Amino acid sequence: MSVVEIALPTGRRPRPRTFGPLATLAHRRFQLTARTPREFVVPLLTPIMFALVIAPALKTALHTDTSYESFVAIGTVGLLIPLNTMFSGLGVIVDRISGAQRELLSAPIRRGLIVVGNLLVALAITALQVGVLLAVAVARGIQFHATAAGIAWFVGAAALFTVGMYGMAEILANRVPRQEEYIARVPAIAILPWFLAGALFPITALPHFLMWFAKLLPLTHGLALMRYGLLGDSTGLHAIWHLGNATEMAVLSLGVVAVFAALLTTASIRVFSHSAVR
């Protein structure tokens, strides 16, 4: 018997497979994250309460018109996304402590694919929850004035902000040792910026130094873009940039959210890779 050797051309190496392992990792994370309907419903309770109860109550108490309900309804999206992505980070800690992360790290795949697989699931679940929230708001009688271009602005802002916030969750999950410490940090990261980013009132109503701080928050840019997309309201963008062209301001804010998403995703992969070898 003879052994036939097949040599690859010089300088060429087999390309590592990406999409197959990524789909497998995403499917595994989805099964762990959304095993019961409760895990879909619970993160929606607080934003739906804002959209259906608190927004109408504030409209009545403040003697505003129906446009304020639309304003707050978009603002609740800025609460749902951070809460959902940060709670997704809990699954990373559980996987590290009692799950199969150690076995995954020994598999012949790029470690960054584990993070990306988790991200895809968080993005899909958040998109579903945002869609449900908006559908409930419409059923409640809250009006939006969206065009095809406006929907694109909204989707782009919401998706990029979700990606960035999940990167934040992944970094935190790989830096803290226990779930209790992680949960203790969630309010400061997911909820506190929401009060400063123009969710319930324009940032121009803040004290001057807080208004300038709010302009640095990615959520402020995200909410301004979402309102521009679904309401055709560029006042939030103008409060940030003070320019005359709404499209130009929207592009600038989208760039801020995109940089936020890219930086946090890159950092999350590096932190995960570093923590995996400790």
Characterise this structure.
- The chain is an all-alpha fold and 278 residues long.
- Helices cover 77% and strands 0% of the residues.
- α3 (66-98) packs antiparallel against α5, α3 packs antiparallel against α7 (179-196) and α10 crosses α11 (246-276).
- Residues 1-15 have low confidence and may be disordered.
What's a quick, concise take on this entry?
This protein is mainly α. Helix content is 77%, strand content 0%.
Provide the low-confidence segments as ranges.
1-15
Regarding quaternary structure, what we see is single chain
SS element count, helices: 11
Main pleated-sheet profile: none
Q: What's the mean pLDDT score?
A: 81
Helix and strand string, N-terminal first? HHHHHHHHHHH
Name its key features:
mainly alpha, 278 residues, 0% strand
Q: What is the secondary structure topology, with strand pairs?
A:
Blueprint: H1 19-33, H2 38-62, H3 66-98, H4 101-105, H5 111-140, H6 148-175, H7 179-196, H8 208-214, H9 218-231, H10 235-241, H11 246-276
Helix pairs in contact: 1-5, 2-3, 2-5, 3-5, 3-6, 3-7, 3-9, 5-6, 5-11, 6-9, 6-11, 9-10, 9-11, 10-11
